[in-house]
Amino acid sequence: EQMCCEIMKREYTLASQVYMQLAIGNAAWLMEVPTLMEGGMGGASGKERGNFFKQARTAAKLNRAGRSNPMDDGEVRQHIVALKRLLTVAQVILPNQDVSKNT
Q1: Within 13 Å of residue 54, how many CA atoms lie on the same side as its CB?
Q2: Sign of the Cα pseudo-torsion (34, 11, 21, 23, in order)
Q3: Roughly how many angstroms between the first and final C-alpha of the chain, as a whole number?
Q4: Rama region for 24: left / alpha / beta (φ>0; ψ in -120 to 50; rest)
Q5: pLDDT in tens, 12-38
């Protein structure tokens, strides 16, 4: 509801923040975890690889211990994606006069 209200007011930056909170929530990520997904382990030694995997497991445990992510439910995920698409279309069709509110 809050995201739609912000879109109607053309407060696209605030709407994007609401979207990020819906999509990602408060999931814990360690700084090194994204390197696993970006293929950043190519030059890593065996010990470094072990550390990366330990960090990834720790982040996964922290995320499981917290509340579940709404994006885990397929129907909810479809609605959140539809809201993001609505936000994107609204930004193109009705841009805010204040450019700083269009991001």
Answers
A1: 6
A2: negative
A3: 20
A4: alpha
A5: 999 999 988 888 776 655 444 444 444
Q: Tell me, rounded to whole angstroms, the distance of Cα 97 from its chain centroid.
A: 26
- pTM: predicted TM-score of the whole model, two decimal places: 0.58
SS3 per-residue string spanning 50-102: HHHHHHHHHHHHHHHHCCCCHHHCHHHHHHHHHHHHHHHHHHHHCCCCCHHHC
The pLDDT score that the predictor gives to residue 84 is 92
Q: What tokens were used for 22?
A: 């819906």
**What pLDDT, in 10s, does the model give residues 44-103?**
566 666 666 676 777 666 666 555 666 667 788 888 889 999 999 999 999 988 888 877
DSSP letter at 17 equals: H
> 12-23 vs 74-93: helix axis angle to the nearest 10?
170
